[in-house]
Amino acid sequence: MIEISLTTTEHGTHAGALRIADSRLWEAFGSIGLLASHRGLTPWPYTNWGRAARRSLLRSAVTLPGWLVHLFRAGGGTLPSFLLPVPSSARQPDLDDEIALLRAVSPARVREELERWFPRGVPVEVRPLYADPVARIADLCALLPPYVRAALAPYEASLRTVTDDDILLRARVLATQGPDRLLGTLDGGISRRGDVLRLHAGPPGRIAARTAVSRVVLVPLVFGRGASLIGFAPNGVTAVSYQAEGAAVLACETRPGRRAGGDEPARGDRLEILLGRSRAGVVRGLVAPTTTSDLAALLGLAPSTVSEHLTSLVAAGVVRRRRAGVRVLYELDASGVALLRHLDNRRRVNAPSYETT
Predict the structure, then answer these.
(1) Could you tell me which residue, 256 or 317, shows the higher pLDDT?
(2) What is the pLDDT of residue 276?
(3) What percent of the chain is helix, strand and coil (3-state, nearest 5)?
(4) pLDDT, tens digit, for every residue of 20-34?
(5) What per-residue string of b and e applies to 15-36 under the rule 16 or more CB within 10 Å gives b?
(6) CB crowding 100-111: b at 16 or more within 10 Å, else e
(7) Does residue 252 have a pLDDT over 90?
(8) Exposed / middle / buried, residue 207 (Cβ in 10 Å: 0-12, 13-18, 19+)
(9) Closest CA to 350 of 287, 269, 285, 286
(10) How far is it, in rounded angstroms, from Cα 274 to Cα 340?
(11) SS (HEC) of 285-347
(12) pTM of whole model > 0.85?
């Protein structure tokens, strides 16, 4: 466990101590962690993605380094911080820029962190990295772009929508209700006690000393299930990942509007039997805040059809409508979440986290 002392005042956490930033590199590592930690099927909602990603990586001849896989497994799903440069919150993330920061990590830092991770000796699987950090990091930097093209590029639009909406909504919570409320909404391998963030990260059984930092950067990850990723910058800034809302969008591999059989429900699908195939698809597509046009593109339905379904679902009290700038977003209300929990083959769905009233 790693504990981070937050900058606080007599009124609570100082707002300037928190920022929210996206990272394509961290998202890539989060997805690699899921593949590395699960030799068979990845858990829902990543199961369909995991199958497709493994097939695509095999076709593309992309093989994950053995030392990287071992680091994930030894760390319970997380990584040493030298692999995780702190993302900038000033602009949209650029994978090439983040890879350049990774490439610049010093060999001394790599060896120092590996020795702390493995106090009884660096295991044989990780010794290639320890022996020649420059070469192994260079190999990883060369591997990351083809990995992203094979495993993540087909889902880029959904990933971007989920993280952009998550950042927008968390920023709204930070601005209107303050950092303490924001920290209380975080999911993933992270919890809070008083002015300390507790990260359930690192090799099992290892306790890191409490670390005081000047600022915390929160990084939403669609592939953020399990242990949190954590990165440190020399200026005292610490970045911590958390599970973004809406990861279940990856479960929508089948597109109801493009399957044969019209709106006939699938056998054994209780949600489709109750609502019909296309309307059930709309409900499943609303696990992340979504616009009518984005939802229509995801499901392969006409925007007018999706709009009609949304109107009915709003009237039924299972979906709510809200404005975010110039966009109108739709998302599941508490009743919609309950509907999915009880009827959608017992899949787990998080309750809405963005109540601002």
Answers:
(1) 317
(2) 83
(3) 50, 15, 35
(4) 899 999 999 999 999
(5) eebbbbbbbbbbbbbbbbbbbb
(6) ebbeebeeeebb
(7) no
(8) exposed
(9) 287
(10) 12
(11) HCCCCECHHHHHHHHCCCHHHHHHHHHHHHHHCCEEEEEECCEEEEEECHHHHHHHHHHCCCC
(12) no
The candidate with the shortest Cα–Cα distance to 100, out of 119, 112, 113, 87, is 87
pLDDT of the residue at 205: 46
Cα dist from 75 to 4, 169, 203, 282, whole Å: 18, 31, 4, 38
Instruction: Tell me what pLDDT residue 123 has.
Output: 94
* 105 in Cβ contact with 113 (< 8 Å): no
- For tokens 């920061």, name the residue: 101
Q: Are 51 and 80 in contact (CB under 8 A)?
A: no
Long-range interactions of 348-352: CB distance < 8 A, separation 24+: 348/44, 349/248, 349/287, 350/187, 350/245
Question: What secondary structure does DSSP assign to 183-227, as a single string?
Answer: HTT--SBEEEETTEEEE--SSTT--PPPEE-SEEEEEEETT--SB
241 sits in which H/E element: strand 237-243
Answer for the pair 2, 199: CB distance below 8 angstroms, yes or no: yes
Q: 71-80: per-residue pLDDT in tens?
A: 998 888 889 9
β-strands 237-243, 215-221: how paired? parallel
What are the C-alpha distances in Å from 337 to residues 169, 246, 320? Answer: 18, 12, 12
Tell me whether strands 230-232 and 12-13 are parallel, antiparallel or unpaired: unpaired
Length of the chain in terms of residues written = 357
Measure CA 11 to chain center. Answer: 31
With vertex at residue 106, the alpha carbon angle to CA 102 and CA 109, rounded to the nearest 5 degrees, is 105
Residue 331 makes CB contacts below 8 A (sequence gap 6+) with 286, 288, 289, 290, 319, 320, 322, 352
Cα 82 from Cα 102, distance rounded (Å): 8
The answer to whether 262 touches 272, Cβ cutoff 8 Å, is: no
Segment 178-222, tens digit of pLDDT: 777 777 767 555 666 666 666 655 554 444 444 556 678 889 999
